[in-house]
Design brief:
mainly alpha; 12 helices; 62% helix; 0% strand
Length: 226
Amino acid sequence: MSSDAAIYTNRSRPQTTSTSDRALMDAFRTMSNMSDRINLPRTITDRANVLFKVVYEGRNLKGRSNSAIAAACLYIACRQDGVPRTFKEIVAVSAVSKKEIGRVFKLILKAHDTNVELITTGDFMSRFCGTLSLARPIQKAATCIAQKAVDMDIVPGRSPISVTAAAIYMASQASRDKRTQKEIADIAGVADVTIRQSYKLMLTRAKDLFPADFAFVTPIENLPQC
């Protein structure tokens, strides 16, 4: 238990503070359990604990459940610590909807002047490809495709996660080790249609996106058109 969490284990505190103490302890326990289930390091749990305490004591999010605040705090802590997780990954280990976590996330940023690093395609590429059991050359190609698509402004307004997913789809479809949009969508936590939208934008410039040394099994002209 972190030093912040340990403060609230003192059973000798006056009865008048027990409700607040219990709420904090429950939230710390919830975030610890969530972290364990998705293998997050202790530093992130500690950061989330500190943020939850600030938010809880600030009373700026009245009407929002502690479960939603805890989930949003863990999501923010991951972003701040440079190991971002998708909303879907947080939702999978919480009892709160993606929409509610998203709302609370925005409220915390606004109410507490909290900053988070912008996420990039590189933040998710290795983990997504690893989960999909894709070979290193495919990951390398997907990384190149995603980065070039962003640099060339081919996917304006598209989220880094959807661009990452579309790049993985394109690279895998050009290889022997193909993955479907649904398989990738399930890992990335985005809808199939979201991948298709980014993929269609990238497909028009596909020849400019692949690394020069990529070993095509399926040539660009034979890649799926949607």
